[in-house]
Amino acid sequence: MESLLIAIAANTLMIFSMKRAETADAHRKSVVLCNYLFGACFIFLFGGGLALGEGAGTGSGFALQGLFSAHIGIAAGLALVNACLMTTCLLLQQSSLRTNGAGITTTYNRLGILIPTLLSALLFREYPTVLKAFGIALAIAAVLYSCEKESDQAASQNADSRKKNYGLLALVFLTGGCIDFISKVFGILCQPELKTLYTFVTFLLCAVIMLVVILVQKEPLTRKDVAYGALIGIPNVGITFSMVSAAAVLPAYIVFPVYSGAVIIIINLASVVLFKERLTKREIIATAMIATALVLLNL
Q1: DSSP state, 60?
Q2: Exposure winner among 105, 146, 229, 249, fewest CB in 10 A?
Q3: Dihedral angle at the C-alpha atoms of 86, 89, 90, 92, nearest 10 degrees?
Q4: Distance (Å, whole) CA 260 – CA 244
Q5: Cα distance between residue 51 and residue 58, in whole Å
Q6: pLDDT tens string 127-136
Q7: How many Cα atoms occupy the beta-carbon half-sphere of 92 within 13 Å?
């Protein structure tokens, strides 16, 4: 449960760091590159370094003897898939934060819980109780209810001048859900000792992908980009580590709905207080539904 709380706090900090970077007009792709570079360095420096001898295989450090594990091929493949998903999702979130606002972007990103929750039930036979199933259904219904109809959008123009881009939000939902499912798959198929190495390789591959994109598109890199990259990268590491740890010991129907619901509530409330984003009636009701779902999921 501690890992889950860390993931919630880290995701909240990361969202607001991204929001601040957008309002500061930092270069998106350069910020994403710096985020993953700082993340990889942070993992290497504070993850225990290269563990040899007695330290290897204990979960502290990179455990070089784990490189010869039968699971290393699976971990490497998952790291590559995860890197592609993470870079895509972060770029989509950056765009959506500016277009749609922090609250609804986070809500759709966390709606991705539907993907790992359903796939875990089908593939790993993790079935929730009736009460928890009702909580999951309520959380999903709340997110779907938060979608405004065109008539609702027109009526709420005075509250928020932005028109929601639901195509962009759908992509945020899909990539976010797939990232969560990869964490679950790693927790089940791979040795816990490979967690640090897996996370490091994931962030390193993300940095390589973004470096290629920046070189091709000749994106500028400024001190501002580096600073915001650090602010986003460190909590990003916390999310990845914590979700892998939580998914390895807790069932998916607890991890993903609780994580998602808590982040949605915190972001929506903080958006109102800190960024003066006025929630629509639908978003207020949906937030209350999610809070109720969280109670049911923890009974």
Answers
A1: S
A2: 249
A3: 160
A4: 15
A5: 9
A6: 777 877 887 7
A7: 22
